[in-house]
Design a protein that fits this description.
Elements lengths: L1 H13 L4 E6 L8 E2 L2 E2 L3 H6 L6 H18 L6 H21 L6 H7 L9 H10 L4 E8 H10 L7 E6 L1 E3 L5 E4 L17 H6 L5 E6 L16 E8 L3 H11 L2 E4 L5 H8 L3
Helix pairs in contact: 3-4, 5-7, 6-10
Keywords: Cytoplasm, Hydrolase, Magnesium, Metal-binding, Nucleotide metabolism, Nucleotide-binding
GO molecular function, one term: magnesium ion binding
Organism: Cherax quadricarinatus (Australian red claw crayfish)
């Protein structure tokens, strides 16, 4: 605990000018539960949308049932999991292409979904925007849906950079594939950002608040130019007993079934 106290003190005392924030999206910035119901992730928004064909939901759930247990298996190494994760993402991506998704349908998918930001996220992001703190949102989900959620809640400001899997459209605005390299759960690190203008914003920002809900998220600060202090906040949302030990070993602070941004909000609230 002493190390965590020291980290928090250093980050607070160094102020906004030394800070950058790196966060996962699904189940980190967004809630897992709301009013007793499970909230939709980026994939879930598509899965449950009436604008998507029925076969998409069916096939996507089969893939989830096959690959998700591998993703969270505490007995498998990351190296063993990676080929399965790539396989899963590629199959999901092929499935989405078959659905001929139109760019203009995404706004309706998001607004009719039950996706919600964690309580206090809007206030936290608003404060970071006012203080001109760069925020990197890193997601192995679908960037187009994610951006739409950020817009829906009015938090997609000019200090926020999203790195994710983005759709490629034809001239009729129909999704025909994905742009660039695949971002999956175990290659989420800043090396995946080839945008030099983002790195320019990070000069002198050696303090990082990193937030994620999976062990793969810990790497998100790799590639940050000289980070000296990285505070890792982990949201442990399910399978608590079997995963708690590995989360405690890897994150500085572990929050169990917490649907708020209270901890990060309190730290940022102390800063000048």
């Amino acid at each position: 605990m002493a190390r965590v106290d020291e980290l928090v003190t250093t980050i607070v005392e160094s102020g906004f000018s030394s800070l950058q924030v790196i966060a996962d999206f699904d189940r980190t910035l967004t809630r897992v539960w709301y009013n007793g119901k499970e909230c939709e992730t980026c994939h879930g928004i598509m899965d449950n949308s009436s604008l998507m064909p029925a076969f998409f939901r069916e096939d996507s759930n089969k893939l989830l049932a096959k690959y998700y247990p591998i993703e969270i298996d505490p007995k498998m190494s990351e190296e063993e999991k990676i080929p399965y994760m790539i396989e899963w993402y590629e199959q999901i991506h092929e499935l989405i292409v078959k659905c001929k998704v139109s760019q203009e349908s995404l706004e309706e998918m998001v607004s009719s979904s039950n996706a919600r930001l964690r309580d206090g996220t809007e206030e936290l992001l608003s404060k970071l925007h006012s203080a001109e703190v760069p925020v990197l949102v890193f997601s192995a989900g679908m960037g187009d849906i994610l951006e739409q959620v950020l817009r829906h809640f009015n938090v997609y400001t000019d200090n926020v950079k999203v790195v994710s899997n983005f759709f490629k459209y034809n001239d009729k605005g129909v999704m025909i594939g994905f742009k660039g390299d695949l971002v999956h759960i175990f290659n989420k690190n800043e090396n995946a950002i080839h945008s030099s203008d983002y790195f320019d914003k990070l000069k002198g920002r050696n303090n990082v608040i990193l937030m994620g809900d999976s062990l793969g998220d810990i790497k998100m600060a790799m590639g940050v130019p000289q980070p000296s202090n990285v505070l890792k906040i982990g949201f442990l949302n399910d399978k608590v007993e079997e995963r708690l030990e590995s989360y405690m070993d890897n994150f500085d602070i572990v929050l169990i079934d917490d649907q708020t941004m209270g901890v990060a909000g309190s730290i940022v609230g102390l800063m000048k």
